[in-house]
Adhesion G protein-coupled receptor A1 (Lates japonicus), 629 residues
Amino acid sequence: MRALSLLCVVVGLWGSGLSNRNCPDLIVDSCHCSAERSKELSRQHVRVKVVCDDVDLMDTLQPSFVPNTTVSLNLSNNKISLLRNGSFYGLAALEKLDLKNNLISTVEPGAFRGLLALRRLDLSNNRIGCLSPEMFLDLGSLSKLNLSGNIFSTLTVGLFTHLVALRVLHFHTETLFCDCQLKWLLLWARSNSVRIANDTVCVFPTHLHGLEFRNLREQQLRCDGPLEMPLFQLIPSQRQLVFRGDRLPLQCTASYVDPSVELWWRHNGHVVATHEDRGVYVEETLLHDCCLLTSEVILSNIDVGIAGIWECLVTSSRGNTSQQMEIVVLETSAPYCPTDRVTNNKGDFRWPKTLAGILAFLPCAPATFGSAPHPSGSAPNPSSQREKKAWRRCDRAGRWAEEDYTQCPYASELTRVLHELTQITINTTNAQPLGQQLVAFTSRAAHFTDVMDVIFVTHLVERLTRLVEKRRDLGDYISDIASNMMLVEEHILWMAQNEARACTRIVQCVERIADLALTGDNQVISKVSANIALEAFLIHPSNFLGLSCTALQRPPSSAPSPLPDSHSHTDKGMGRERDAVGESLLNFKCHTVNNSGSPASQLSKMTNTTSTDERHCASADGGESAQLT
Ligand SMILES: *[C@@H]1O[C@H](CO)[C@@H](O)[C@H](O)[C@H]1NC(C)=O
Ligand SMILES: *[C@@H]1O[C@H](CO)[C@@H](O)[C@H](O)[C@H]1NC(C)=O
Ligand SMILES: *[C@@H]1O[C@H](CO)[C@@H](O)[C@H](O)[C@H]1NC(C)=O
Ligand SMILES: *[C@@H]1O[C@H](CO)[C@@H](O)[C@H](O)[C@H]1NC(C)=O
Ligand SMILES: *[C@@H]1O[C@H](CO)[C@@H](O)[C@H](O)[C@H]1NC(C)=O
Ligand SMILES: *[C@@H]1O[C@H](CO)[C@@H](O)[C@H](O)[C@H]1NC(C)=O
Ligand SMILES: *[C@@H]1O[C@H](CO)[C@@H](O)[C@H](O)[C@H]1NC(C)=O
Ligand SMILES: *[C@@H]1O[C@H](CO)[C@@H](O)[C@H](O)[C@H]1NC(C)=O
Ligand SMILES: *[C@@H]1O[C@H](CO)[C@@H](O)[C@H](O)[C@H]1NC(C)=O
């Protein structure tokens, strides 16, 4: 093995054969040697620096080929995976050794044997998980050690016993677990004046995340917390569709956060053990790199009995956790759901032929976001559109069953914008621009095609109405919006009413405005918009008991004409209305007025003319006037 990998280096890097003058024996000519000569006590000193950076080395250099006067050896950015006992033996003058950014996973005991003068060692960004004190034999002069960027999450007690001159230590990793197992290091560093670099910060447990290790207090390093796993994965993680007779291995990997961690398998809640006659083999749990546990279940010769939920369970003294996936066993003659096309307000979905028992997914149709200004000033978050999907289940019998498009944005830009508006918090600051915007949107109400448009507007109108007490001017917007909504096509309104009582709720909002408008000093209201005329006079109960009359007038033309200026709806005098009785008077109603009760309740009685229209929300395309006289 050793000869073989060395051979690779030789073959791969054999160059022109011209030896570097400073390194006569070095056969790897992509390495650079430089030498400094200095006179010290009349003896000539040569200080050689060897740099073999980023030259695809698979192995360390044979020490006998490197001048024994080398003081700095730089092997960074290569593909070295193993440091053997004595890998650098003979380089007794070496002071700096840089091995960062390699693939080192194994460091044998005695790897740095003979490096008696070594002062700096950089092992950062490798794959070292197992560390032992014997790794550092002979490094009695080492003052700076960088172990950052490896895969360990903890360091074993007494690891640095041989490093008697150590002054600075880096050991930050992506899985560094600051718990009771590192308490010794904190105490050892303090009593030996070793500085733990400030880039060494905790990653786990979550409550210590980002804290510098050296600043922790001893009591913070505890092992009683809830179980946290730096790494825990089940492969495959997604549901698997397998045919009878197939073979499927399941592999589970979990961090070995402490020796109490164990892996188990469960199938539909029952612990799994090897069952040769059923073709289920549970392999022995293995510890890799001192920090990962792996366990494998091999399902050979699958039959329907293995269908269901498979779970990898971790138990430990700190708690348990699990990951699961589903196996669906397909009969070879399984039925299919046919291809199907669904068009709805979320777009056009073409469902492919799908096997029975399967949940099919389709990405939402790509939507280009409208540029509607947001009253809140906040832009929609584009990243939230990522990965949105619709799903549909094909049942066991091969029929399309439940489906869900809720994650998808509305296909119509108007619907999408209205939907976004419903997501913002309306307060007195943004209510006025929102009201304005809604008046503008609903001016196109005749072209609304989606029930959701009506429902969203209803929702927004209700929320605006709640603010009318604080901002009176909102009343005008609401009555304009309600008026505009009467232009929506009748069957859409009808559906919105059925689904969400949308019409009733809008009318209630209009009533509420009238109610509020009549309180306080205000004794008269008159709000006239295209399709709603709201007129009210306050009459003192003490001096009135009689008839109240309402006239509804349809303009002569019976053709639908939603343009506001085509109506007249300001008739106030009864005389004039009587004059108009002819063909245009649609309805004329009088009631006795009960003088008890608040003006507001009387008004709401009168708005019954509107309420009767709830059933189809729009007045019969004519003007409508409510009067209390
Ligand atoms: C270095 O090697 C030379 C021979 O190549 C030897 O004479 C010398 O003693 C060695 N020096 C050390 C410090 O090992
Ligand atoms: C080794 O080489 C790399 C890349 O050129 C450089 O970043 C690093 O500082 C060198 N190491 C030493 C100890 O000089
Ligand atoms: C390393 O190798 C040397 C020489 O072969 C041997 O004496 C020593 O015991 C080995 N060290 C370890 C820790 O295996
Ligand atoms: C130690 O290694 C880490 C990871 O490569 C690096 O971020 C850090 O700067 C190194 N520290 C020193 C002092 O070289
Ligand atoms: C960490 O230490 C370095 C020098 O060792 C210093 O430049 C840097 O400011 C320190 N960072 C923090 C956050 O203390
Ligand atoms: C963890 O699992 C073991 C074995 O299944 C069980 O005895 C123990 O009660 C569980 N602990 C917790 C905290 O759920
Ligand atoms: C209204 O909401 C916006 C953003 O949500 C906020 O900036 C503003 O201060 C709020 N105004 C009031 C009066 O609460
Ligand atoms: C008037 O209303 C009150 C309560 O609203 C009721 O008790 C009374 O019977 C009503 N009178 C008439 C004449 O309807
Ligand atoms: C108003 O309408 C409600 C139900 O729509 C009805 O019960 C009530 O009698 C009506 N009132 C008047 C004054 O028409």
User: Anything to note?
Assistant: Residues 1-19, 367-385, 557-586, 597-629 have pLDDT under 50 and may be disordered. The first strand starts at residue 32 and ends at 40.
